[in-house]
Amino acid sequence: MTNMEQDRWTRVKGRLRTSVGEDVYTSWFARMDLEAVQDESVHLSVPTRFLKSWIQAHYADRVLTCWQAEMPEVHRIDLTVRTAMRCAAPAKEAPAAADQRRPERVDGRPAPELRSTATAPVSASHDALGGSPLDPRLTFASFVIGRSNTLAHAAARQVAEGRRGDAVMFNPLYIHAGVGLGKTHLLQAVTWAGNSGNERKVLYLTAEKFMYGFVAALKTQTALAFKEALRGIDVLVIDDLQFLQGKSTQAEFCHTLNALIDAGRQVVIAADRPPSDLESLDDRVRSRLAGGLVVEMGSLGEELRLGILKSRVAAARAHHASFDVPEPVLDYLARTITHNGRDLEGAINRLLAHSKLNATPVTLEMAEREVRDLIRPQEPKRIKIEDIQRVVARQYNVSRSDLLSSRRTANVVRPRQVAMYLAKTLTLRSLPEIGRRFGGRDHTTVLHAVRKIEALVSKDVALSEEVESLKRQLQE
After folding, report:
1. 244 and 175 within one domain
2. Is 253 exposed, middle or buried (0-12, 13-18, 19+ CB in 10 A)?
3. Is the distance from CB of 37 to CB of 5 less than 8 angstroms?
4. Which of 19, 80, 304, 349 gives 20 to 30 Å between its CA and that of 373?
5. How many Å apart are CA 19 and CA 226, to the nearest integer?
6. Same domain assignment for residues 400 and 464
7. Does one domain contain both 370 and 400?
8. What is the rounded distance in angstroms from the CA atom of residue 412 to the CA atom of residue 453?
9. Domain endpoint, select from 90, 105, 137
10. What is the pLDDT of residues 394-449, one digit of tens each?
11. What's the rounded Cα separation, in Å, for the pair 307 and 335?
């Protein structure tokens, strides 16, 4: 590059910096190099494919304008991706090598230096913007609807069918449920359906992928670009939010969440617990999440489990036409495999493998033998403090936030004491832990509540029946 070209490139960069601002310039243009100026074209290079595609999509005209201010004859900007090898050129090169690098053109003028446009490894932050992998089987068509997931399905469907510019009814949509109850299925179904129309950009990310991308963006000094790209998404779908860790990552997630919601973009989130129980998250994040539509997907009832089994058999039959599971076997599986939907799918896969590999039909005896380790003993249900708070609040017609508040009115004090008593008798939590989960109360307050209800239950028949009814509801 001649001194004149270098000076001109310096002035162009100054114009760019003034035009887009220091932060944007640092994120997008700081690592852009001038390769050559030839006739009416300027040849520039950047280190990654992502930078190239983003600059071409969003800043090509601005770069060209800045060049034309210096050289009116320029009408074209060529942007390539340079390899890391270019930066490691040896200090001395043999003349022959130099000749090979700069071949002569037919008209006698030197040809532009040949640069490899092989793509350098794309950074993890840019890779995250491609989204987490999607399973083509997880669509709305394959989702089995039952009483425990009707509302979640309807809300997800509403989001998926929305169009750009439509008013957002509930934002964010927050779906929570235990393992294997269909959260990921619904979120991926939203992504497949939303992207199928090619009108809106729907991005599906696990919390881990979001963290990985953000940390990588910080390391490569492209954090601003990462943020801008995320906030340009029409529908952001985040799965397994309970795994989001790190103060800086949570702060960035909060800023992204606020920016998307304030701009009228849709956010869909799934986790294994409600927002109020995500204790590792900042209060601001939990508050914003709770401000949308929070939907719980309950456990799978026997009827729903049977529907899932039939759906999986039908899907398997599409590839193995002779595969059949008799009705008594399906009834047996639906009755005995109660934990989650993944166990049900695993049972069908085992029956299919056994039937095809051994060329034998599926029988009840074979099913009992093949899936016996999936039939878990009916252990007492593990009861969570949040379950106790929810059931007690519903029983006494108060809110869960009332139980956690400092209110001392009679209609709140008694339910709070009952909930603390049940937490002590039905869980293995310590008194200090229970106190912390009830609004940060001292363990002596919990002990007083437990002793108070114990004394009343022995004398008050009505209260005793209420407490027993609550226990039954929690253990169902």
Report:
1. yes
2. buried
3. yes
4. 304
5. 20
6. yes
7. no
8. 14
9. 90
10. 889 888 888 998 888 888 999 999 999 999 988 888 898 899 889 889 999 999 99
11. 12
